[in-house]
Amino acid sequence: MLENPNLIAQFQREETQLFVLRVMVGLVILYDHVHPHGAFVKASNVDVKGCVKLLKDQPAVRSEGLLNALRYTTKHLNEDATPKHIKNLLAA
Known about the structure:
Blueprint lengths: L13 H21 L13 H9 L3 H14 L10 H8 L1
């Protein structure tokens, strides 16, 4: 689904776009908490890199809170099994 660069653009109302982004972040956080290895390992079914890139493509006003939610409410982000490129994406 994230392969489509116009994913957010297909929704006309800004409220709907923000809702889709919030749901995406919420699902990543939920998956990270319920899966034994989390959402950030390479074997995960979640495209965390794509999610973060999609958020970073949005204006900072829309995405900064969501990026902070990923940074500070996920369970496995700071573990050794998390790839460095994912940590670097969320650190910047």
